[in-house]
């Protein structure tokens, strides 16, 4: 399964809403889709699994939605620490556990 | 507390074999449903899944790299080793190991804990 993330870069201001898209080339079984946040020089951090379940300790401004082939990560109000690169990953048809190409959320 | 740490050479020459070790704590790879995976990230690029080893010693590889990869585990030492043969400059990347707690028989292969990564440069 190929994952296409859009947009490649999202330029927003703190306090704004961010909407990130992840589209799969075929249906993701059981909506087994995860989202990760990666800041420069750091390992990725799990945000969302099962398309919509927040991982432990993740603030509720992060939410995931979608099913089938179209998934969305929403950050309701951007905080300064949210500016990072975000990756989606599918595990409905694994192996392999494939990643999308990433969306960079940058400060406008 | 779950932790993972990668170790290995920072620099390898083309055609050499890379050996990376992931040393972990806070879980056991003999527990049903536990897995450890290797993922890499070339500088400025996206993540690429490489290989996974499961609690029952089942092994899975990126199909484009199968011929070059070997993954193994030493449960008594809490370590997972990845070898990659015939290294090339395009293999320059940060290599991460990560844990999966799959919830077997559910097959939830997402990565809940990651090591900090180790940068491997391939250059003569």
Set out the fold topology.
The complex is a heterodimer of chains A (about 110) and B (about 120).
Chain A (H helix, E strand, L loop, with lengths): L2 E4 L2 E4 L5 E7 L8 E6 L6 E5 L3 E2 L7 E6 L2 E6 L9 E6 L12 E5 L1
Parallel strand pairs in A: 2-10
Antiparallel strand pairs in A: 1-3, 3-8, 4-5, 4-9, 5-6, 7-8, 9-10
Chain B lengths: L2 E5 L3 E2 L5 E8 L8 E8 L6 E7 L4 E3 L7 E6 L4 E6 L8 E9 L11 E2 L3 E5 L2
Parallel strand pairs in B: 2-11
Antiparallel strand pairs in B: 1-3, 3-8, 4-5, 4-9, 5-6, 7-8, 9-10, 9-11
Walkthrough of the structure:
The complex is a heterodimer of chains A (108) and B (124). Chain A has 108 residues and is mainly β. Chain A contains no helices and ten strands. In chain A, the strands form two sheets. In chain A, strands 2-10-9-4-5-6 form a six-stranded mixed β-sheet, with no helix packed on it. A four-stranded antiparallel β-sheet of chain A has the order 1-3-8-7, with no helix packed on it. In chain B, strand 5 and strand 6 (59-61) form a beta hairpin. Chain B is mainly beta. Chain B is globular, with a radius of gyration of 14 Å. The A-B interface holds A 32, 34, 36, 42-46, 49-50, 55, 87, 89, 91, 94-102 and B 37, 46-49, 52, 60-63, 96, 107-112, 114-117.
């Amino acid at each position: 399964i190929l994952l296409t993330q859009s947009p490649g870069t999202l330029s927003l201001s703190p306090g704004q809403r961010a909407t990130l898209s992840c589209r799969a080339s075929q249906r993701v079984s059981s909506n087994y889709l995860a989202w990760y946040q990666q800041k420069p020089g750091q390992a990725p951090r799990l945000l969302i699994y099962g398309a919509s379940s927040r991982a432990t300790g993740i603030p509720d401004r992060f939410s995931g939605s979608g099913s089938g082939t179209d998934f969305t990560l929403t950050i309701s109000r951007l905080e300064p620490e949210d500016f990072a690169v975000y990756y989606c990953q599918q595990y409905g048809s694994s192996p392999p556990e494939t990643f999308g190409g990433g969306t960079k959320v940058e400060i406008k | 507390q779950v932790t993972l740490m990668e170790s290995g050479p920072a620099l390898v020459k083309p055609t050499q074999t890379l050996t990376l070790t992931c040393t972990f704590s806070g879980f056991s790879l003999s527990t049903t449903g536990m897995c450890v995976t290797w993922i890499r990230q070339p500088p400025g690029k996206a993540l690429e899944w490489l290989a996974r080893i499961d609690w029952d010693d089942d092994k899975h590889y990126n199909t484009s790299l199968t011929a070059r990869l070997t993954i193994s585990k030493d449960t008594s030492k809490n370590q997972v080793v990845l070898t990659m043969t015939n290294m090339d400059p395009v293999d320059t990347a940060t290599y991460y190991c990560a844990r999966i707690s799959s919830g077997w028989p559910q097959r939830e292969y997402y990565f809940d804990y990651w090591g900090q990564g180790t940068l491997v440069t391939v250059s003569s």
